[in-house]
């Protein structure tokens, strides 16, 4: 994997280290294994405080997602622009995800004006929020 990255010393998010137990962060769509979220949290979303909190990992990530894209250069990737994730670290991202962020976290994100790929309960399907 690392050989594909020409600027290899650049910081990047963990990539999944096994083919099962994948979960996607509901905020940014980063795909990792449950254990990786539990060990390190989400590199893009430190404010979610996922590390070492099993309940948080459970509620802020989802196993219900479709497709994965490996994004190595967020700044000039059309995939990244399309996904609205160009400000995230290079890593593996879900193309589509289903899930509901806990309402109190959704509220926190709104207060901080942080975009979120998942919706709060009752707000309908997953959609990419406008960046701004
Ligand atoms: Zn995230």
Note the topology:
Blueprint: E1 22-25, E2 31-33, H1 34-40, H2 54-60, E3 61-62, E4 65-71, H3 78-83, E5 91-97, H4 103-111
Antiparallel strand pairs: 1-2, 1-3, 4-5
Zinc ion is lined by residues 25, 27-28, 30, 42, 44-45.
Subcellular location: Nucleus
Domain Spt4/RpoE2 zinc finger: 22-98
Organism: Pelagomonas calceolata
Please tag this protein with its features.
132 residues, alpha+beta, Herpes Virus-1, 3-stranded antiparallel sheet, 4 helices, 5 strands, 22% helix, globular, binds zinc ion
Strand order of the largest sheet: 2-1-3
Can you identify the CATH class?
Alpha Beta
* Share in helix: 10-25%
Report the bound ligands by name, code or SMILES.
Answer: zinc ion
Please tell me the CATH architecture by its name.
Answer: 2-Layer Sandwich
Q: Encode the helix/strand succession as letters.
A: EEHHEEHEH
Strand content: 15-25%
Straight-line N-to-C gap: 32 Å
* Biggest sheet architecture: 3 strands, antiparallel
The number of helices is: 4
CATH topology: Herpes Virus-1
GO biological process, one term: transcription elongation-coupled chromatin remodeling
Subcellular location: Nucleus
Protein name: Spt4/RpoE2 zinc finger domain-containing protein
Keywords: Nucleus, Transcription
Short overview:
The protein has helices at 34-40, 54-60, 78-83, 103-111, and strands at 22-25, 31-33, 61-62, 65-71, 91-97.
